[in-house]
Amino acid sequence: MLNEAFFKYLQYEKRFSVHTLTAYKADLQSFSDFIKTQFEEDDIAQIPHTFIRTWIVQLMDSGMKSKSINRKISTLKSYYKFLQREGEIIQSPMLKVISPKIPKRLPQFVEASNMEHLLNDTDFENNFEGIRNRLIIEMFYATGMRVSELLQLKSNDVNLAGMQVKVLGKRNKERIIPISEHLLPLMNLYLDEKSHSIGESQAYFCNGKGEPLYTKYVYRLVKTELSKVTTIQKKSPHILRHTFATHMLNNGADLNAIKELLGHSSLAATQVYTHNSIEKLKNIYKQAHPKS
């Protein structure tokens, strides 16, 4: 039986999203099932760290990636930390559990010339859907927002006069992102076409019936459009977020400013983009220095 108080704590105090809560519940249920089957133990609150290590080994043997295993370990750390806070355990068994190392990978991004080609040379249909789809691509690249943030946008979140947009990020944290001036004509065109085609809709980005777009639709759209200009393996909205951050950094933006625009809780999450810039400098050095 899972601890419902823990999930209420995550939902109301930590303000975790529905998606994150679902993942945490699945992780704990999976762990609980394993402990019950393997060790015939019903209460995962009172188990030794060796049981947890056995579970991790089993996950590794099954071929699960280190990143996914570490997410499950993070779930357990939060759970046992909560039990410690509530006085149900004295010490967390996670103190003796070591997370598997994750191989470092640089964030993939689209080259600036390819983005320019996509935005300037690609034909989008001159109707409601075409204008909307073009704006979705432009918004991702111009703001760096997450796909969940874009789909949650309400009409009153976008302030054209103030040239800014209000987004609801992770853990329900609001932030303001500036809108670049070059986007205003397209945004005004979209609003005119939206008003003419479907009338009023609370959702900023919607389908022909005024209903919010599905996540899968946006993923499919981005993949289709990026496939026209790049051969990178992943072609998702998050790649456009990486592209926004990398291009901002390469053009001299302050790392702390990028952190605020992306809605990162710590600078460490933003610093990963500096590695792309360093790699770029290395390539320039190799090409330009006679002794390289």
Detail the topology: elements first, then pairings.
Elements: H1 4-13, H2 18-39, H3 49-61, H4 66-85, H5 112-121, H6 128-143, H7 147-151, E1 158-159, E2 164-168, E3 174-178, H8 184-197, H9 215-226, H10 237-250, H11 255-262, H12 267-288
Antiparallel strand pairs: 1-2, 2-3
- CA distance, first residue to last residue: 62 Å
Name the overall outline: globular
The CATH topology of the largest domain is given as hpI Integrase, Chain A
**What is the number of helices?**
12
What's the mean pLDDT score? 91
What is the helical fraction, as a range of percent? 55-70%
Any idea what the CATH superfamily of the largest domain is called? Intergrase catalytic core
Rounded Rg: 23 Å
How many runs of DSSP E, i.e. beta strands?
3
Number of domains: 2
Given helix and strand content, the structural type is: mainly alpha
Instruction: Assign the CATH architecture of the largest domain.
Output: Orthogonal Bundle
**Residue share in β-strands:** under 5%
Characterise the protein shown here:
- With about 290 residues, the chain is mainly alpha-helical.
- The protein has 2 domains: about 90 residues, Tyrosine recombinase, N-terminal domain (DNA polymerase, domain 1, Orthogonal Bundle), CATH 1.10.150.130; about 180 residues, Intergrase catalytic core (hpI Integrase, Chain A, Orthogonal Bundle).
- The protein has a 3-stranded antiparallel β-sheet with strand order 1-2-3, with no helix packed on it.
- It is globular and about 65 Å long.
- The mean pLDDT is about 90.
